[in-house]
Amino acid sequence: MEKNILITGGAGFIGSHVVRQFVNKYPQYMVYNLDALTYAGNLHNVADLESAPNYEFIHADITDLGKMREIFNMKNISHVIHLAAESHVDRSISDPLVFIKSNVLGTATLLQVAKETWEKSNTDSHLFYQVSTDEVYGSLELGKGLFEESTAYDPKSPYSASKASADHLVRAWHHTYRMPVVLSNCSNNYGPNQFPEKLIPLFINNIKTQKPLPVYGKGENVRDWLYVIDHAKAIDTVFHRGELGETYNIGGHNEWSNIDLIKVLCDTMDEKLGRKKGTSRALITYVKDRAGHDLRYAIDATKIETELGWVPSLQFEEGIEKTIDWYLSNDEWLSNVIDGSYQEYYQQQYKEV
Ligand code: NAD
Ligand code: DAU
What we know:
alpha/beta, binds 2'deoxy-thymidine-5'-diphospho-alpha-D-glucose
């Protein structure tokens, strides 16, 4: 194989789309999907890839140093696309230490094992790609400014601080050991396979089942939304064309206040479900704000657009409609996640756990 790529977190939301992008588009690459299958990992997300000859799933935790050494050596890993992480801000507020372990120690473990393995190799065709978030830049005022690659890091939640720490480690390994790295920082993703704890899938499910829609604070916080497959394509672009040591911001110039976005979800779903207009808006319930809630994120994606030629392919209206349709027609995926039975799939498919 031309490259042996380790994609971490490939059973999660974004990782599953990245794995699919690489397995289907590049038969000349071997893709190893490494995932610990935490609550957020779901092998149904990649079930369509199981029989592909250039795909293998590995059940492992990135903080397990011995296991990572074994995998890098046995599989002759040449490239890493690192997505595995604890990803939900609310969980980072109630249970921060698991974020430090997976996101900080896990990234350091992978960097160190990649360094040890690649130093012994007789080729220099290697890459460590760190997939990060715009939350490392902190929070913007309403209507003022955008996150650029030069914006100083100012993370404010345990989640964003753990991702910022990981990004610093990646840059430190590049600076100190000449590790070939590239980083990207993306805005909020939406689309198929997102765990229904995040705003869009949670609200789609609550609207469907006519449960209250818990809007934090006044709903005025702004997020910049990108369809997940456009993110996967951007990662493909940065992986192949990004310059070593560089960072690329990824976003779709698509800012929405939470409350405006929620109203779009309500009205679109009323129409799709044949309900009277306004039925779902009546479910909106203002609740206590998230602690330390970042007010606004917004990405300036000029660098990736002009230097690497990536642009989002989907307009938001189309993306949100596709997303709603996906959740409405994948009832089984959603109910398996909600009742926890998705976790049994691994035990049935793979004998060693
Ligand atoms: P997710 O929570 O859906 O998936 C994370 C995956 O990582 C899961 O499959 C989980 O089992 C796995 N994982 C967690 N800890 C692990 C460990 N210790 N060892 C091995 N596997 C482990 O997350 P996501 O939303 O798909 O995010 C993926 C990555 O993209 C994260 O690094 C996140 O910070 C970043 N990101 C997410 C967004 C977004 O909007 N969701 C935006 C920008 C960047
Ligand atoms: O910006 C990128 C980040 O986007 C990623 O790095 C994170 O992994 C990802 O989870 C996401 O973080 P957010 O905190 O922005 O996403 P979340 O879906 O949790 O919340 C989006 C907005 O909606 C936020 O302002 C909080 C609000 N919200 C969320 C939930 C779950 C509510 O008002 N009610 C809710 O029930």
